[in-house]
Amino acid sequence: MVGQRKIIHVDMDCFYAAIEIRDDPSLQGKPVAVGGASNSRGVLCTCNYEARKYGIHSAMPSSQAARLCPELIIVPVNFEKYRASSKAIHQILNKYTDIIEPLSLDEAYLDVSNSHLHSGSATLIAQSIRNEIFEKEKIIASAGISFNKLLAKLASDWNKPNGQFVITPQMVEAFMPVLPVKKLFGVGKVTAEKLKDKNIISCGDIQKHSLTEMIQLFGNYGKQLHLMAHGIDDRPVSTSYIRKSLSVEETFSADIAPNKVPDYIFEDMFNELNKRLTKLKHLNKTHIKTLSVKIKFSDFTATTIQSSNAGYSKQSFMQLFKTRARETNKNIRLIGLGISFDTTGKKEGGQQLLLDFQPCSNNSC
Ligand code: TTP
Ligand code: MG
Fold first, then answer.
1. pTM, whole model, 2 decimals?
2. Of all protein residues, whose CA lies closest to atom 10 belonging to ligand 1?
């Protein structure tokens, strides 16, 4: 990779579950998940690889997981532990480079192009990082090494768990055509379906189209898809991150009629949102642009009400909720409160942000 960037993507294996198993060795070798209990209406945050053999995965309702694997052990979430471990892991990463972009508690990109450690070998640096994470945190990490972020992330998935993989420029021509489009950044179920309608299943199918055709078919996103399908990604590893929003949500243990939602639910959620807001380093109430309330109904349909005029208060959220709740008689499964920030010109240090990051609350991962 002479003259190319050297990017490493590090991703812990079954992160929350790995921490729980580390802290309770009696769980070793057993199918283990982390999330809401199966007799509640919780969902799983993650599970170990033993549990994955049963088809269990993140975001699966715990009750469904327990049906697939009756001996599954479900451990409740303990964010403080995961945050502490994440912090320790990032201290290790910091020894290898200053150019680190944390993506979540368990994932980060590193740009080691200018590192002289291990004679500048990104492969050896990745190995050394993984060894050190295991020695100090007793957590297993996988890593991907390549000359851009897209390929490094794809590579870290390749030999998971407990592996690493390098994608060199010479390998791109063979690697990309067979890659399913749903592995590309930003391609979720909906986009994958839209692509499928045009007979595009793999990156090779995208490659058959010219850039102009892709733009005609999918607008500006078509351009991104075209670049990604050719393994092109010029995004730098960015050490700063602009937080655009913050939210909390609560899944009820039983569905509630819209006119029966008690005030204390809003009180609790508003306090939690406030707590998280005050933890942010460079953002405060004055940066709030919009308030939003998300409602998920018993039939799993969802709606979001947003306002850019309402002042930041519990009453404003309740008012937003009531406006929509009045229009329905469907019972409610989940309520979420959110705020978005006016981030023009404001940047947050990625490291601080990592500590603020919380992918889910209560039993609703
Ligand atoms: P991931 O890195 O996506 O998953 P993982 O580390 O559990 O497993 P893998 O070996 O495939 O990397 O997510 C990191 C943590 O984030 C995960 O341990 C739990 C949490 N998480 C959720 O809470 N909900 C989710 O839907 C996902 C995908 C992850
Ligand atoms: Mg992971």
1. 0.74
2. 13
